[in-house]
Amino acid sequence: MVWTPELHHQFVEAVAHLGEKGAMPKAIVQLMNVDGLTRENVASHLQKYRLYLKRTSTTATATPPPPPPLPASRSAFLSSPARSSDVKHSRSCAKDGRTAFS
């Protein structure tokens, strides 16, 4: 069975019409009314479709929103060169002055 874009669209409309609880393979087959379409074809496609929906919904919620833009005063501070008096050595510096980022 090849799921053409038109057939898939009809499938999605049937699933939406039946709702989350009523979207069972037998009901979808009856609603779509396509010659040669079996309950097994629809069951397999429904399983893949539900996995796709689950994957896309978790991806959308798992991605954190981008950080807000910096205020003008902060961005000016970040773009100005650092002076040697502004730089403080931390414990992450090696004895020879190299940092972990060097």
UniProtKB/TrEMBL annotation:
<keyword id="KW-0238">DNA-binding</keyword>
<keyword id="KW-0539">Nucleus</keyword>
<feature type="compositionally biased region" description="Low complexity">
    <location>
        <begin position="72"/>
        <end position="84"/>
    </location>
</feature>
<keyword id="KW-0805">Transcription regulation</keyword>
<dbReference type="GO" id="GO:0005634">
    <property type="term" value="C:nucleus"/>
</dbReference>
<dbReference type="Pfam" id="PF00249">
    <property type="entry name" value="Myb_DNA-binding"/>
</dbReference>
<dbReference type="InterPro" id="IPR001005">
    <property type="entry name" value="SANT/Myb"/>
</dbReference>
<keyword id="KW-0804">Transcription</keyword>
<feature type="region of interest" description="Disordered">
    <location>
        <begin position="57"/>
        <end position="102"/>
    </location>
</feature>
<dbReference type="InterPro" id="IPR017930">
    <property type="entry name" value="Myb_dom"/>
</dbReference>
<dbReference type="InterPro" id="IPR044841">
    <property type="entry name" value="LUX/BOA-like"/>
</dbReference>
<dbReference type="GO" id="GO:0003677">
    <property type="term" value="F:DNA binding"/>
</dbReference>
<dbReference type="GO" id="GO:0003700">
    <property type="term" value="F:DNA-binding transcription factor activity"/>
</dbReference>
<feature type="domain" description="HTH myb-type">
    <location>
        <begin position="1"/>
        <end position="54"/>
    </location>
</feature>
<protein>
    <recommendedName>
        <fullName>HTH myb-type domain-containing protein</fullName>
    </recommendedName>
</protein>
<dbReference type="InterPro" id="IPR006447">
    <property type="entry name" value="Myb_dom_plants"/>
</dbReference>
<feature type="compositionally biased region" description="Basic and acidic residues">
    <location>
        <begin position="85"/>
        <end position="102"/>
    </location>
</feature>
